[in-house]
Design goal:
Oligomer: single chain
Number of strands: 20
Largest sheet: 7 strands, mixed
Number of helices: 16
Length: about 475
Amino acid sequence: MSDSAASAAAALLDRIQAPEGSGREIPDAATREIIGRAPVDTVTDVDGAIARARAAQPGWEALGHEKRIELLLAAADAIDANAEALSYVLSREQGKPLNGPNARFELGACSAWLRANAAIATPGEVLLDDESTHAELVYKAAGVVAAISPWNWPLMITIWQVAPSLRMGNAVVAKPSEYTPLSVLALIAVMNDVLPEDVLIGISGDREIGARLSSHPDVDKIMFTGSTATGRKIVEASAGNLARLTLEMGGNDAGIVLPGTDPAAIAQDLFWGAFINTGQTCAAMKRLYVHDSIYDDVVAALADIAQSTPIGNGLDENNVLGPLQNKPQFDIVSRLVDDAKARGARIVAGGEAAPELGELFYRPTIVADIPNDAALVQEEQFGPALPVIRYSDIDEAFAWANGVDVGLGASVWSSDPEEARAAATRMQSGTVWVNSHGGVHPMVPFGGVKSSGYGLEFGAEGLKSVSVTQVVSGPARKG
């Protein structure tokens, strides 16, 4: 990372952070030194932001799709122009390294998602067109969208919420996690250099702010990505205003490796399906079920990769794994791995903290010979520790994979892709990947089942989810 990028990052922070002596201090995830001060907004500030967004929304919608598309593309260009500075802020605040599928990758996804949403055809369809009646289904802006994003992919997930909302003519009030507010506020500042005033407003604060957004009578749509526990609270809080909801909540994704699969051919993809963003990804693979006939070979291959993958401070261009983002998450990973050890599971890689690297670093961990009822299997670890469970009966493997109350993603692995596709239909999850795990595409709808939430994001379905429908029905059209 060049000195010029670091200087540009400092200038970005100066634009959005709280004045000296105020706000909440935000630490570098790797070194724990303070990198900036996030504003601490109040409920009154939230009310004011929603009022401003409400006032700006009709004019934004009135611009029409063509002009909004033009401005979304300009916002994508602005992100690209500031990508290195934003990557620097993101790497320090969140902890993810610059390289690999991490900070620079995330910034590239932000501009790509804006451009993809600009390219999607405006949804709508003719329902009936005969000699007597013409009926058409149209999609209109919902109004004001509250976008509540998490700390693991703070910029990318914010864009996942903001891009379709703006595309359809909504105004957005965006609240980042209290752990990663600076990078999101900086992203919003960059976008607002080209967007009309008050169609995108950032609010920074704690759970009280999120609760107000969820219950405010002038919020028409809530988009939330985060824990199932918080998602349930949002459902309860939104009962009074009947805001429409898109909830992408916890996942404990399972992968199943079918017999006859070549371990060497899938090992790298298995590893990154689990350890992308140091395991801090909703749709990362959290449990891996491997047939007894190839179990030892798969475990050995994963252990080799885990032990050789560079981990450390994200600003070091050589590293591709970083720290846990915050102490509570570090404690969860430590507790679950310690519990696995106590149950007699075999640690084949990692299994401990790496204090020489920093306070929140945990070595990439592969846990073998662990029972399916262990806490590390049944609870979402959201960190760099993968339990690998041995199975001999395929029906039992699917029962174990489906035997949790969440269903965001899943995967099936086989040297025979058609066999894997057939097996994939047995998984209880919103998405099932074949011979990969966790990849998303802006044109392919994504969402969970069971306690992983409801509502679809991405593609035309994502545009529909931030809209309200209207049927226009009348006499047959002439000509």
